[in-house]
Amino acid sequence: MLNFRKVGEWNRETLIENLMEEGFLKNFKICNKCNNPTTLVNYKRNKDGKAWRCNSRACQWFKKYFSVREGSFFDGMDLEIASVLKIVADFGTKRTRKSIVDAYTGEVSERSVDRILQKLKSLNS
């Protein structure tokens, strides 16, 4: 089981691998255009350091990159995944919104904390 408190100790690659193993991120992706499997590759243009890539030469999206966050809780978030997970862990310990915002001042904006908390609360509805 994923230990949310240890995520800060892992590098991005280890974090992505662990999230895939635990089912928080997809461990495979099918290209939406050609329906062929994509490949997980290193990618320097995003915070995750990984992306899915279509390798089917016949596809219009050949060599196009797709976020590993697509279709997950993290989809649409610009923060480092480790920061999001720390906030999720704090929320899980019943910390107040204010104490979570205060704990991440300077690292994460209040607006980002609110978005994460709102997304968590929407999972219960």
Folded structure, characterized:
The protein has a 3-stranded antiparallel beta sheet, with no helix packed on it. The protein is built from 4 helices and 3 strands; from the N terminus they run αβββααα. The protein is of the alpha+beta class. The mean pLDDT is 92.
Task: Describe the secondary structure blueprint for this structure.
Elements: H1 12-21, E1 38-42, E2 50-54, E3 65-67, H2 81-92, H3 97-103, H4 110-123
Antiparallel strand pairs: 1-2, 2-3
List the keywords:
3 strands, 34% helix, alpha+beta, 125 residues, 4 helices
Average pLDDT, all residues: 92
What is the count of β-strands?
3
Bulk shape: elongated
What does the radius of gyration come to? 16 Å
Q: What spatial order of strands do you see in the largest sheet?
A: 1-2-3
Fraction of residues in H or I helices:
25-40%
Unreliable stretches covering 5 or more consecutive residues = none
**What string, H for helix and E for strand, traces the elements in order?**
HEEEHHH
Biggest sheet layout: 3 strands, antiparallel
